[in-house]
Amino acid sequence: MPDRQAKYQIGQVVKHKIFPFRGVIFDVDPEFANTEDWYQSIPEELRPRKDQPFYHLFAENSESYYVAYVSEQNLLPDATDEPIEHPQVQQMFGELRDGLYLHKDRVTH
After folding, report:
1. C-beta separation of 13 from 78 below 8 A
2. 81: phi > 0 → left, psi -120 to 50 → alpha, else beta; which?
3. What confidence score (pLDDT) does residue 5 get?
4. pTM of the model
5. Which of 18, 84, 99, 107 gives a 20 to 30 Å CA spacing to 59?
């Protein structure tokens, strides 16, 4: 199987293609690495391929904050340039620049 490079990067703000939420990526798995129960809980017609990057997001919608696990095929870059309000974003990331949060370890003054 060829090496698969992730399309999105840690700190990038993305949105879901189908569901109304957006978030910031805080980790990437090169291919599916969650439980089979989690995978089977997705309706079959919406179930993504396992052989692609999956992203861990600090996600938010109009009602709540949560952590989401999303396949690359279901993400798009978020072009709103609006910050993510999820409370864990401030713990891991610094400022937002052009749709990308700078990791606190990499922030320079």
Report:
1. yes
2. left
3. 87
4. 0.91
5. 107
Q: Give me the chain's average pLDDT, please.
A: 92
Place of tokens 């997705």: 42
User: How many residues does the structure list for the chain?
Assistant: 109
Angle at 13 between CA 103 and CA 104, to 5 degrees: 10
Q: Token match 């992730």: residue?
A: 6
Q: SS3 sequence, the chain?
A: CCCCCCCCCCCEEEEECCCCCEEEEEEEECCCCCCHHHHHCCCHHHCCCCCCCEEEEEEECCCCEEEEEEEHHHEEECCCCCCCCCCCHHHHEEEEECCEEEEHHHCCC
Amino acid, res. 71: S
